[in-house]
Amino acid sequence: MEDIQTAIAALHAAQPDRDFLVISHAIDRSLHLKLSALLKEKRRNEKVTVFLTTYGGDPNGGFRAARCLRHYYKHVRLAVPSFCKSAGTLIALSADELRIGDLGELGPLDIQVRKGSELQESSSGLDIMQALQAVTSHTQDAFHRLLVGTRNLGLSTKLCAEFASTVASGIAAPLIGQIDPIRLGEMQRATRVAFEYGQRLNAYGNNLKQGALGRLIGEYPAHGFVIDRKEATELFDNVSDLSAEEAAFCDAIWDIVEHQRDGFDPQFVDAPQPQPTPDENADENPHGPHTEEAANDGASAGPGLAPEAGTGSAGDPANTNGSGVRVRASRVRGRGEVGRPEA
To answer: What is the pTM of this model?
Structure first.
């Protein structure tokens, strides 16, 4: 507990003009609803540092969550201590700056589309496009080799071209015939969604380098491809390591930010409150500071993220609203300040 208090105090002392927000959650519509309600009620500053851990999720939910952050804050710094994959990377596009820890990683933005014939399985929106590219490349290669090979036999160019075209068509036709044009259209639209969302979110901080959005959507070979801090510097202009205070804070709440914690709601990290002196305690409590009530109050008080007992394990929340996660840091006390309504 003292380590957490010390880390939180150092974090606020180093950057007193910022709010600090911890999100360890799947990217979905429920995240947007929770985040919107939290920021409307408790936002205090115009700048925020968001500690985000997620495996990804719904791009529509990611877009709404990112827009929500930008609605309430003029400057957004995204700190990535661990996983920030898929739709989490979409949120990263809206940030003014990225701070990625030694274990932090982003991921590509190729949209995942659920397979109609499979339960709980999805495929990349690039699968069909890459299949078409492979068929096209194979057909062109076959045509070229046949044309050159038959021309060397002394046949006319016209006759060789006709022969090569017939053979190449025979190769391509059964392969292309397996591609569903309706499915192809769905994949193209899904990929277009990622591009349009990315353009709109990057407009806030303009942190993407030229052509980086296209690389994120279409040039990485797998959806799980690791984009670490070094790789991220090739895509974003403003990327750096976590500050010493941010790294110490992440170490103190590593149980929360190491992996996505389903059931852990977004929470602010409050600045430590000054502890009353013994004389003040005596004035407030005429029975003395050692009564059972005072002891209980002291046990429940604490700055910022406070531990709370629960029945769940590190990967099993004690209850579904995230308030009883049994980790070193599970609940943030509210500030009580009302912000402006979200558009």
So the answer is: 0.71
